[in-house]
Amino acid sequence: MKMETLVPKGVFDTRAKHYCSQAIKAGTIVYVSGQVSWNEKGRLVGLGNMEAQTRQCLENMKRTLAAGGAKMSDVVKLTVWVRDIREFGSPEISELWRNYFGGRFPTLSLVQISNLWRPDFIISIEGIADLGPKQVVTATGVLDSEPSLYSQAIKAGNTIYVSAQLSRDEKGNIVGRGDFEAQMKMSLENHRRILKAAGATMNEMVFLHMFSKDERHMHRPSYEPVWREYFGKRDVACTSIQYGNLAVPGAITSFDGLAEIGAQEIIIPPDVADSIPGQLYPQAIKVNNRVYVSGQTSWDVNKISVGQGNIEAQAKMVYENMRRTLKAAGATMSDVVKLGVFVKDMRLLRRGGYGKIFKEYFGEHCPTVNVVQVDNFWRSDFMLEIEAIAVV
User: Fold this and answer.
1) Which residue of 2, 132, 177, 285 has the fewest C-beta atoms within 10 A of its own C-beta?
2) Separation CA 64–CA 76 (nearest Å)
3) Are strands 237-242 and 205-212 parallel, antiparallel or unpaired?
4) The sheet that has 253-260: what strands, in order across it?
5) Comparing 3-295 with 296-392, is the CATH topology the same?
6) What sign for the dihedral angle of Cα 304, 306, 308, 314?
7) Between 222 and 191, where is the model more confident?
């Protein structure tokens, strides 16, 4: 499929210095990098001011979408990363949301993280837009999201974008306070109901973000039975991270999902380690013309962690695993349209060594990128994890 790198007017061009594009258009879909509060000259707007930084992020996104012939009403998925989640719930932020999205709100995941690319950034907003026909999905038995200014799900063509599901019942009550398995079950049950309303099942789920306040929960024996209850023997590409906070007090885990209706191919590259725990997560799923790549780590094929304490060595192993996974799917690094980079210490990523490794694997190709600092990974010796979407 033909891909077009978008260079919007009035938005800082990140390609030369930061090796990423503001957006890539592939068919009817526009993938937008994490927008931060830079003006067109790369200068910070709104130091310490959540309202001012949010406005700049949204304005950058609006201009970026316009370069691809899209509008804010075409946005189907937003992920909002904030340094302090309490600052995002103000009436001023809600008014901004209404002004930019009107009465049609995209799906939303809102996560508090410990740092962004620059310490003076307090919010980053990444998105996906689709210029084709779209349908807002409303499910029975799931909390009405409209008062909170987001949609539970949007179906665009064969793709269903699902907002981050907390363990809330239809009245908004948290289910299973302090109980990870109970909260996981409620979140996945909400996904099941939403997909049913969209004419799909959990079998169509191809990618999940799993956010947890304590990654150790993912290793408990009681975790896998809940997973198997909803997915059976079928696996789903995913990324799992430990975060700082979620939008609702008492929530200790959240899942956001993406489903595709179409023939799926599980990608099992012979030279990349099997995913764990319990081989629940394949390295990638290929469906229609897209490849969804699970978060790649610095494990080698023998499940030995490469480059402990060395961010450059780990980044090289991560991107090599990604290259091998994409090759097994009939794709290359030049087909990547979206990267999600999660790192434990942002300062290490700013060093020149990481940029050299990035250029080694991507050359002149500049995918869209979002970079956030998280609290931990499912192994404490991992320093970063990187997911991807490729279009072939």
Assistant:
1) 2
2) 15
3) parallel
4) 134-137, 153-156, 159-162, 253-260, 205-212, 237-242
5) yes
6) negative
7) 191
Report in angstroms the alpha-carbon separations of 375 from 189, 242, 276, 346: 27, 5, 20, 11
Q: When comparing pLDDT for 248 and 73, which is higher?
A: 73
Q: Find out whether 389 and 29 touch, Cβ atoms under 8 Å.
A: no
In angstroms, the CA 386 to CA 295 distance is 5
- Start-to-end C-alpha separation, the chain: 6
Residue-wise pLDDT for 127-167, tens only, equals: 999 999 999 999 999 998 878 899 999 999 999 999 999 99
CA angle, residues 57, 342, 79, in degrees to nearest 5: 35
Give the span between the Cα atoms of 107 and 164, in whole angstroms. 8
Return the sign of the alpha-carbon dihedral for residues 99, 341, 231, 290.
positive
Q: What single-letter DSSP state applies at residue 336?
A: E
What is the phi/psi pair of residue 356, to 5°? -65, -40
Residue 211 corresponds to which amino acid? F
The domain segmentation of the chain, as residue ranges, is 3-295, 296-392
Which secondary structure element, helix H or strand E, spans residue 50, and what is its range? helix 50-66
Half-sphere exposure of 118 (CA within 13 A, CB side): 14
Contact 168/187 with Cβ under 8 angstroms? Answer: no
CATH code given to domain 3-295: 3.30.1330.40
> Taking the domain 296-392, which CATH number applies?
3.30.1330.40
